[in-house]
Amino acid sequence: MAVPDRSQPPQQVRFCRSADGVRIAYAVHGTGPPLLISTCWLSHLQFDWESPVWRHVLVDLGRFATVIRFDERGHGLSDWDVTDHSLPARIGDLEAVADAAGYDRFALMAMAQGGPVAISYAARHAERVTRLLFWGSYSCASRGLSADDLALEEAFSQLIKVGWARPDSTFRRVFTSLMIPNATEEQMSWLDDLQRVAASASTAHLSRRQRFHADADALLPQLDIPTLVLHSLGDRMREFHHGRHLAATIPNARLVPLESDNHILLEGEPAWSVFVDEVQRFLQPDVPANRPPEVASRLEDVLSARELEVLRLAADGRDNAAIAEDLQLSLRTVERHLQNIYTKLGVGGRSARVAATTRLFTPA
What we know:
The protein is an alpha/beta fold. It has 2 domains: 12-286, 3-Layer(aba) Sandwich (Rossmann fold), CATH 3.40.50.1820; 299-361, Winged helix-like DNA-binding domain superfamily/Winged helix DNA-binding domain (Arc Repressor Mutant, subunit A). The protein is built from 15 helices and 8 strands. The chain has an 8-stranded mixed beta sheet with strand order 1-2-4-3-5-6-7-8, sandwiched between helices. Strand 5, helix 4 and strand 6 form a beta-alpha-beta unit. It is globular.
């Protein structure tokens, strides 16, 4: 695996609103075909970006993909004052981020508890998902659990209620030890802190209970999308049989067992190199054949079909309101498309519109 580029440009944090009005924070970074991540249980876009547990994940994926990730409702930089963490609400969040990011088609990766959301989205919007990936994920958390398993889940739920917000990390270390048992003390301490920073105790308790009942298992046989399942053999947070079930039930899915006990693969362990190589190879068909992944030679390689329509109308002299009317879009959607265009073309300021439209008349 290539040495990660630690000088990678910083992520761009943006916001959108879900169908019920909840404000969702999402971030974009990297270069290459778009990869939208259906997020895991705990995240904080800025805290993760600087962490010894997630930084290598973000940097390495960003070398060959444009990574779009978000904080779930109630977590990180998204709105915290939320009580609805149901599967329909979470699907709405993913739909909002997918639309706001501005890509017509993209690969979709489900991490951990993002599985049921990604499965549901892919079943509803198969025309937008080029390929589907799962990392330490599942279709239904409660599938196949014994009475002892259910009792343990209830114990975890109570542990969150009484220990999550305590300054002492003793209670939170239980979850950290399940997620990264082979980590250093520095890495474990950071994940201890993430739990407190990412969500309040009440949200952590409520969201976990609602997610436990999310079930997308019946949709798996319907998925007709290239699928890659990556799962650690010794995963203690989400046991390997969940990954095996995904690969065995989704038509033509491929399973890659990872030689690790860590739910979150750590930098330097052999399984991480395997993971990166597998993901990069799997995404390769999404890279336009007429250019190397790091070089964009034509607008068609950079912008979506809708963004090109918007840019051409802007070049014809139409203002945003006229563009919205011509394409039957909302004014806000047109503004979002233009902002995405400026970002992708690397232009900004008062002259951004002129610089972007000029590209239409510049030979590749």
